[in-house]
Specification:
Layout lengths: L2 H33 L1 H4 L3 E2 L2 E2 H32 L4
Antiparallel strand pairs: 1-2
Length: about 80
């Protein structure tokens, strides 16, 4: 595999990870905070309605968790394609 082919394969896989993780974040922030708010408000978390909690806190927590997942995936990807230090 040439360097150019390796770089193209690396970026394709990187973009796949980005699209999946950003889709998860969009579903959680927009879906749970706005679209499914009424159904989620039937459940309470810490005294607050779950739909409100996702709109205010949950999407931020999910985003931070997704950052850590992305770092882990990228470390594995770097090793796979020989871009690690």
């Amino acid at each position: 595999m040439t360097d150019k082919q390796r770089a193209v394969a690396y970026w394709k896989e990187n973009l796949k990870y980005l699209l999946i993780l950003l889709s998860v974040w969009f579903i959680v922030s927009y879906g749970c905070g706005i679209l499914f708010r009424e159904a989620l408000n039937e459940i309470r978390l810490g005294g607050f309605k779950l739909g409100f909690w996702f709109a205010q806190q949950g999407s931020i927590y999910v985003f931070v968790i997704l950052i850590f997942i992305y770092v882990r995936l990228m470390n594995k990807l770097d090793k796979k394609y020989g871009y690690d230090e």
